[in-house]
Amino acid sequence: MSAFEIEGASRAAETGGDDRWSRRFGLTTGLLLVVANMIGTGVFTTTGFLVRDVPSVPAVLIAWGIGGVVALCGALTYAELARAYPNNGGEYHLLTKIYGPSLGFLSGCSAFIAGFSAPIAVSSMAFAKYLGDTVGGVPALPVATGLVIVLALLQMKSAMIGARFQNVFTFGKLALIVGFIVAGCLFADWSYLTPTARLSVGTAIVSPELAVGLVYISFTYSGWNAAAYVAGELQNPNRTVPLALVGGTLTVMLLYVGLNVVFLASAPIERLAGQVDIGHVAAENLFGRAAGSGMSLIIAVGLVSTVGAMMIAGPRVYEAIGWDYPKLAVLRKRSADGSPVVAILIQAVIAIGLIASMKFEELLRFIGVTLSIFSILTVIGVFVVRRRLVGRTAGGFAVWKSIPPLLFIALESWMIWHTVRSDPMVLVVTVAVLAAALGLYFVVRGDSNLVSGICDQADSTDE
User: Fold this and answer.
1) What structural domains and CATH numbers belong to the chain?
2) What SS3 string covers 165-222?
3) Least confident residue range of 161-175, 234-248, 271-285
């Protein structure tokens, strides 16, 4: 048994995870939850912005590959941490165990807005737009709001019904995307993928514009950590969580690269530059106007799955906060069928508020930077945990195991740096949200069930 498996067993005993959550979900649900969380708005919108700012088709495809490598490095590291701490909560749970309650609480509060509510809002807004491309005359605000309400009610009714609904929609989304890639490859014009004289591939890859574009790609890949949010409800989490995280991320990486090959081989780069609904534009160029409308419907259906997946993952973070802070105990209230009803309701209300008050692009950068900051802190935590586990088992950790977290930290930091340089307001908004979360922490921490972080807990297990 590895050090992380030993640590995971002791953590389960300490936290009473099995008492708090019923392990109702299997590997299929965990895997599909990762896939559904990842495949959302970004892949059908981001490439239009990328080719506008970085006019090099090969460089854009390389960027999608880099984004996939970053996500895979993150998934490998989270899988290692989730084996040590197999309970619900994602970054909130992991950061609390690694660094202590204050940083974990900041992460949990940021998830209310940047982690789930804002992505739900973005995906619902995109759903309304793509549905409008299909049937025409659809009022965007009511449709986006209605999707949030319907899926929230479904999740509040029953955890298992919501999971089955989610699995069906995700299987359907995967089948449609694979079908589009295969058909697109048959009709694509591969000459569009060759480099142009406007910008060399090497120059494009190291440009600040590509670094900023990678933040959008990072948002598109976000969701690779979804299984960590429901680790407390997955059967045999030491095996299921790593398989779901890594398997789901690899699957989506292959699909994303395939989709973007088809998008970029559908038309000249000038035709695609700046197009928000690039999936619609690509399908129309490849197959005709009717196919463009059909593609928009496929994307709309897929976004239902994305919103539903975030409806499952997000409330488990808020519920974990409710267990740790009695003043926020209302967050852990569950229905008779096992759904965290209050957490789902609060998340839906915040998402609807963002739909009504914010613009699509305003949310994207804020989401990307905020999520990247907490992901970096979590990945750094793997070195902290490894150091504190030294001596518990024979041997140690191979040097190669440090490559994924170090690569993740370096690439994510590079993206954040260039994004903040290009738009300092992103940092201002992020700091404001974290300051408000810190103020709330000082209000509720007095009766916290969290006595200390991993340091003291690790010592107690050795006695």
Assistant:
1) 3-451 (1.20.1740.10)
2) HHHHHHHHHHHHHHHHHHHHHHHCCHHHHCCCCCCCHHHHHCCHHHHHHHHHHHHHHC
3) 161-175
Interatomic CA distance for residues 230 and 313, integer angstroms: 6
Say if residues 33 and 230 touch (Cβ distance below 8 Å). Answer: yes
Residues 366 and 426: their CA atoms lie apart, in Å, by 6
25: helix, coil or strand? strand
Q: 180-187 long-range contacts, Cβ below 8 Å, gap at least 24?
A: 180/259, 180/262, 180/283, 180/295, 180/298, 181/255, 181/258, 181/259, 181/261, 181/262, 183/286, 183/287, 184/262, 184/265, 184/266, 184/282, 184/286, 185/261, 185/262, 187/286, 187/287
Least confident residue range of 22-36, 280-294, 445-459: 445-459
d(CA 122, CA 362): 10
Distance, in Å, from the CA atom of 439 to the CA atom of 106, rounded to the nearest integer, reads 10
CA torsion angle 440 347 328 99 (round to 10): -60
> Which amino acid does the sequence have at 168?
V
Closest C-alpha to 324, from 455, 454, 448 = 448
Burial class (CB in 10 A: 0-12, 13-18, 19+), 69: middle
Least confident of 12-16, 79-83, 275-279: 12-16
Phi, psi angle pair for 372, to nearest 5°: -65, -40
- Is the overall model pTM greater than 0.85, yes or no? no
CA gap 242, 219 in Å, rounded: 21
- The Cα angle at residue 160 between residues 224 and 176, in degrees rounded to 5: 50
118, amino acid identity? A
* Bridge partner residues of 234 (DSSP): 25
